[in-house]
Amino acid sequence: MINERPKDDAQEPDKVGITLPGTVEKIIPPISSKDPEKAQIAVHGADDLYREIRVENTLEDKDGNPVRLKEGAQVDVTIEAEPEGTVPLPDTKESDPGTPKAKSKAAD
Questions:
Q1: Is 1 within the bounds of a domain?
Q2: What is the DSSP string of 31-96?
Q3: Which of 53, 74, 86, 98 is 20–30 Å from 105 (CA)?
Q4: Assigned domain for 95 exists
């Protein structure tokens, strides 16, 4: 079961991440009675070939009651990582060998 966090509970302070908007495109019935129903979510801002994700359509409301997403629902997709699982982005203006550095008048 997917646990839903309240909207006012932002990212955990020790994790880094991004939240992207999404829309539930369709609800996919289970193939067998043992399998869960799936929700297909289009993640806005993702590359076209990788825009859709499918997740188990079982969530909990704020009181712990089981709920499910409806087709067309607007959702937030959050990706978080421990700081140890990330690397800093290089300063592309200074470190990109393909980018010529601007010359200053004082250096001439």
A1: yes
A2: SSTTSPPEEEEEETTS-GGG-EEEEE--EE-TTS-EE---TT-EEEEEEEE-GGG--PPP-HHHH-
A3: 98
A4: no
